[in-house]
Amino acid sequence: MSFQYVGLVPGLPHLLAPRAHPDSTALAAAMGRMGDEMHAAGIRRVLYFSTQWISVLGHMLQARPRMKGMHVDENWHDLPGVDNIAYDFVVDTSFAVNLGQAMTHADFSTKLVDYEGFPIDTGTIVADRLLNRGRFKTGMMSCCVYSDANETERLFKVVSQATKGDAIPTALIIVSGLSGRYFTTEIDPREDHISSPSDDTWNRRILDLLVRQQVTTLDDLQPEFTRQCKADMGFKALSALKGAAVFTGDRTIRQLAYGAIYGTGAAVVAIS
Predict the structure, then answer these.
(1) How many CB atoms sit inside 10 A of residue 148's CB?
(2) Residue ranges of the alpha helices (H) in the chain?
């Protein structure tokens, strides 16, 4: 087994906001429990794949050994309590090199990044703050906007195969949302909810199919879900999960939380 644990989590900064909406509070708490589960299971390294780290010319891997600083989100910089988000990553550089070599060998355009002040995305930082708490080494992969479902699935097959021979127990954390229809006007955070009843219905349907591992139906519905709900990055998370071979029958998929973040759909899903 390449990844001993796989998670699907949201990555919006509202999860770190004090006095947040109950949905955000529940999602953040579920991510905290996920991190504890990973630690108890012996996980020592986390590979983050965040749809907020966007790349255009191929795929990037973080290779700087230590990334520490303060982050200001480009969209939610005035969100009370999270205008500055501290981060501290210990990156497994040899793991990044190995993944990069495997991806390049498989004809993926791949680049390792290593420079001071690299702009780590909000999703990766939020996920790490809630999951890690200094317990795991990390790896980070970008999300190429031009990789379609088939290429994304093939990419994660390559990444999974490259991880299989590694002695360090590793978790794959996909940082992504479900429906992506944000409120377009300012709302009172206490009144947050899924912006469309139809989106809510779709989100719950997709989550139910995930838990029941109905991958053929998920494949069939992915294009329509994306069109109807503006699914985050075309619901590329499904292709990553397929490439990571989580729908094999010997895995347990659990929904730990579901709720709204500024009108969008978000879920915490654990696969072990």
Answers:
(1) 11
(2) 22-40, 93-105, 122-131, 149-164, 197-211, 215-229, 236-243
Using H for helix, E for strand and C for coil, what is the string for 224-251? HHHHHHCCHHHHHHHHHHHHCCCCCCCC
Burial class for 201, CB neighbours closer than 10 Å (0-12, 13-18, 19+): middle
Average pLDDT estimate for 156-166: 94
264: which 2 tokens?
A: 């969008």
Rounded to the nearest 10 degrees, how much is the dihedral formed by the CA atoms of 65, 175, 240, 209? 150
| Residue-level pLDDT at 1 | 63
Whether the full predicted model's pTM is greater than 0.85, yes or no, is: yes
Taking only the tens place, the pLDDT of each residue in 186-219 is: 888 788 999 999 999 999 999 999 999 999 999 9
CB-based contacts of 149, cutoff 8 Å, min separation 6: 222, 234, 236, 238, 239
Say how far apart CA 121 and CA 10 lie, in whole Å: 13
Half-sphere exposure of 125 (CA within 13 A, CB side): 23
Question: Do 17 and 81 touch, CB atoms closer than 8 A?
Answer: yes
Which residue bears the tokens 């190429």? 144
DSSP 100-112: HHHHHHTT--EEE
For each of the domains in the chain, give its residue range(s) and CATH number, in order of start: 5-271 (3.40.830.10)
Beta bridge partners of 161: none
What angle in degrees, to the nearest 10, is found between the helix axes of 236-243 and 149-164? 40
CB-CB neighbours of 272 under 10 Å: 18
Per the structure block, which two tokens stand in for 228? 């109807």
